[in-house]
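Researcher: Sequence recovery benchmark, item below. Answer with residues only.
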């Protein structure tokens, strides 16, 4: 890179920008919300996440308005040095670093919990749970907060297709008009809560203490924070978000415990049948 003109320019730009904290701060403030939008759009897309991510990234990378804005921010530090090549390198490096950081967050030891991706059936169940969480939340709040919570519910009169439509078939089938269907953002928030719970609660070694710290773990999770921040506004407070997580755990905790109890009872029955069969075969062999 040092042997080319563009390479020397890029190195000069990097050096000058690193020495200017004001420019660094302006770049961070400008790029952060736009990369949030890139990753969020990819997560809520019906197509492949990787394909959608690259599509949104390239749209941002080659957007002339964005290039001009970044050039103006850098101009304070670099003067008249051309910045177009630097901006392209910056975008590629940012995307690489963000993907690597996100991937490292999901490298959880197998023994800690379930790490398999959620299938469509499981996501349909999470959507149903999300609606139940909102239903319970409305019952626990006053009239003013109830109006705010309504913004987290999908408008049934809206004919526009949304991300959750592919998972709402089961809820729509069993509903007689009273089941709540969440908005896209609230469903994505609940889905991240489920993913975080699975990573941190080992169902093979579940105990009465397994869910005690689950709420704090979920609230501190990076992706849960990302989606919860999209829900926060002047009417939806952090307290409401905490209530949602509490109701979610009140649903998921007993469900997991009940499943494990059934599995244990089933194992004992299988063991008992096996023992009887052994004794029966031994008796027959002695005759």
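Model:
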């Amino acid at each position: 890179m040092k042997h080319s003109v563009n390479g020397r320019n890029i190195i000069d730009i990097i050096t000058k920008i690193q020495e200017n904290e004001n420019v660094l701060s302006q770049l961070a403030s400008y790029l952060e919300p736009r990369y949030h939008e890139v990753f969020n759009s990819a997560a809520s897309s019906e197509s492949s996440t990787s394909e959608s991510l690259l599509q949104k990234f390239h749209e941002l990378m080659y957007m002339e308005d964005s290039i001009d804005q970044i050039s103006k921010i850098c101009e304070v530090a670099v003067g008249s040095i051309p910045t177009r090549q630097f901006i392209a390198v910056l975008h590629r490096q940012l995307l690489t670093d963000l993907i690597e950081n996100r991937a490292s967050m999901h490298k959880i030891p197998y023994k800690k919990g379930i790490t398999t991706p959620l299938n469509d059936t499981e996501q349909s169940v999470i959507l149903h749970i999300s609606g139940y969480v909102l239903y319970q939340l409305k019952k626990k709040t006053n009239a003013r907060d109830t109006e705010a919570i309504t913004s987290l519910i999908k408008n049934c009169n809206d004919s526009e297709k949304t991300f959750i439509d592919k998972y709402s078939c089961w809820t729509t089938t069993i509903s007689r008009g009273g089941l709540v269907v969440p908005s896209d953002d609230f469903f994505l928030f609940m889905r991240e809560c489920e993913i975080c719970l699975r990573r941190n609660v080992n169902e093979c070694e579940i105990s009465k203490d397994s869910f005690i710290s689950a709420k704090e773990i979920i609230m501190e999770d990076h992706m849960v924070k990302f989606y919860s921040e999209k829900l926060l506004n002047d009417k939806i407070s952090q307290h409401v978000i905490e209530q949602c997580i509490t109701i979610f755990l009140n649903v998921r905790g007993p469900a997991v415990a009940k499943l494990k109890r059934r599995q244990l009872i089933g194992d004992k029955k299988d063991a008992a049948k096996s023992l009887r069969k052994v004794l029966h075969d031994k008796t027959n062999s002695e005759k």
